[in-house]
Amino acid sequence: MSLAEQRVDYELLIENYVEHPVPLPEGTRVEAVDVDGLSAEWIHPSDADAERVVLFLHGGGYILGSLKSHRDLVARLANASGIRSLLFEYRLAPEHVFPAALDDALTAYHWLLANGTKPEHIVLAGDSAGGGLLLALLQTLREKKRAMPAAAVLLSPWTDLVGTVESRGTREAADPIFSAQTMHFLASFYPGPEDTHNPLISPIYADLHNFPPLRIDVGHDEVLLDDSLKIAEHARAVHVPVELAVWDDMWHVFQQYASVLPEGQQSLEQIGRFIRRHTQLSERLTQDK
């Protein structure tokens, strides 16, 4: 298939993983919004907190993913946290290589700040490639001396585009979705001429000091397992608080199947508590100062 056909197919795959399209959680309201030229949606759960925001960076190997493909996942995360979420579309490779996606993520974060959202009321969240992009965004905010968000949530983040982590081989037989060869192929699109060792492309090589608290959820049966374990290890080494949850018998971004998969819903509920706890904690710390 052409890349355009693959993108449509990806949306349909996620949307129709049961017999009929999965309805969003009851009371969810979706509102289209222009984020300085980026297509985006506010996803409001019922009785959403009006001040706090989850800024979601979607996955898809930097070549796939859209509002449609990730609307259900983000709606369920918003419902679990009780906080409205902003889901946006960044430019995709291979048409737009690094740093296009990172530039768009910065645009979305700055748009929130410019429209009155306090950084201590923002939680970043991302799945797969979106998790790697999230870590690149945090590095960039730190280097530019911009205000950091309250916390960050990573769902099976793709952090090693070089492909050297052991789980590429050790988990290959268990992974029902990806192989090491597939990941190597996907890693050829986004970097363009840039070296994949660049920590903004492969955050497994990044310095994570002064990052906000992290919550990392990953399936035990995925070739990207070590992409999460190494990030947790490196973050703890520089005294960044980390909650790491490795889910037995689960695969890549299993939370996308939360409507039919109990473990997916359990993961989102735990993440929701993490988000509520850290946005409230950040607000108290700010008031104390």
TrEMBL record:
Signal sequence range: none
The record's section on InterPro entries has: AB_hydrolase_3, AB_hydrolase_fold, GDXG_lipolytic_enzyme, Lipase_GDXG_HIS_AS
Domain of life, per lineage: Bacteria
List the keywords (alphabetical).
Hydrolase
An example Pfam family from this entry, by short name, is: Abhydrolase_3
Domain (Alpha/beta hydrolase fold-3) spans 54-255
**Which molecular function terms from Gene Ontology are attached?**
triacylglycerol lipase activity
Similarity remark:
Belongs to the 'GDXG' lipolytic enzyme family.
List the protein's name. Answer: Hydrolase
What broad taxonomic lineage does this protein's source fall under? Bacteria, Bacillati, Chloroflexota, Ktedonobacteria, Ktedonobacterales
